[in-house]
Amino acid sequence: MTRQSIYVVDGARTPFLKSKNRPGPFAAGDLAVQAGRALLVRQKFAPAELDEVILGCAAPSVDEVNIGRVAALRMGCGEKVPGWTVMRNCASGMQALDSGINNILAGRSQLVLAGGVDALSRAPLLYNDKMVNWFSDLAAAKTTGQRVALFARMPFAELLAPVIGIMKGLTDPIVGLLMGQTAENLAYRFGITREQMDAYSVRSHQRVARAQDEGPLKPGGGEVEALYDAKGNSYPLDDGVRRDASMAGLAKLKPFFDRKYGNVTPGNSSQITDGAAWLILASEAAVKQHGLAPIGRIVDSQWAGLDPAQMGLGPVHAATPILKRHGMSLGDLDYWEINEAFAAQVLGCLAAWKDESYCKEQLGLDRAMGELDQEKLNVDGGAVALGHPVGASGARIVLHMLQLLKRNNAKRGMASICIGGGLGGAMLLEAA
Question: Any catalytic annotation for residue 326?
Fold first, then answer.
């Protein structure tokens, strides 16, 4: 398949900061702006020379609804550079990249800043309709007597038990399942054990720790830019990694999504996290005009739909058509990134590719795809240890894959992600 080359010139992300059950130190806009400024300041072109800014965000705050435009203005792109926001749940950042690609292919843009962000620690607490109606009646009350009467029948149970917004957001409205319950479905379907989930999770933490120690996930390593708050405090590293992660430690954690029969725990799930990631996309003409040195190319992309109750298998459904289009097998790529929403979900993807009946019935293949070498998969760890700021993760795995290819003089890799609602996304990437 031949198409115009879409180059990735550069990219950067913030450290991913684990939620501590209270609002984190940075709003989503702050995260996007700090990462974007660090990226743009080292470019040969001015921010105002961008054709557009596209930002994926699954949960923008009410004061930053079109957060792409807010970030573009705060980063100094100027009033004439359009900024806009996209949302495809867990793949919002990847959707931003794909939207930029399509505009370049259509000739509408030549140079695009695209990425994703979420500050999930700041997801709101909500009131149900009964409590909202009470507040509405209070606002409409005109006399002291009316107000006293309303306070006398205040629904205290609702007042003291607000709805946790993040839990609503992580529940599929079609099948009524939390995302972790869909991971339990995959574990049951493919016979994935608690020990397998925990072992995968320990490895994720170990790999992130090693990448921090050896440099790829430290500031200056080509990917992560330190954050600084208003008080001058620095946040240099992804802080969710557990260097003491062990099978014995994880075994102590109780299942969260199916407390009686389940095996998915907070320890083998991705973390609630805040973070942002950006990439600069350019056409060949823009590369020549500005004298840019790309780090790689986005060769192909694919979106797929599947049963929302099995949403974790989205990477299988999105990556497989790309492989077929390019005449490749699982082993023909140098590296793979499958976003680690849950350990069971990643292991479920590997199991599905090995399952002949699944490949025939669900993917339309004549045989199983085979086995994906786990030494090529998430070699620097993943979201179980790093966290999963929903809007940013799709952009993070693309950026990390390109940095990985460059670092190891490798040629091709796949970045893929499962998406709440029963979707999958994937991008085939090549080194420059």
Answer: no
Strand residue runs (E) in 306-411: 335-338
Judge if 325 and 372 occupy the same domain: yes
Q: Are 304 and 155 within one domain?
A: no
Neighbours of 408 (CB within 10 A): 13
Q: Are residues 311 and 392 in the same domain?
A: yes
Q: Is the pTM of this model over 0.90?
A: yes
Residues 6+ apart with CB under 8 A from 339: 90, 270, 315, 382, 383, 388, 393, 394, 397, 416, 417, 418
| Residue among 335, 420, 427, 423 at smallest CA distance from 382 | 335
Which residue out of 205, 317, 388, 400 is catalytically annotated? 388
Domain count, the chain: 2
Q: Is residue 424 part of a domain?
A: yes
Residue-wise pLDDT tens digits, 301-315: 999 999 999 999 999
pLDDT tens column, 322-343? 999 999 999 999 999 999 999 9
H or E stretch at 296: strand 296-305
> Catalytic pick from 57, 77, 90, 349?
90
Assess whether 388 carries a catalytic annotation: yes
Q: Which domain holds residue 362?
A: 179-218+299-431
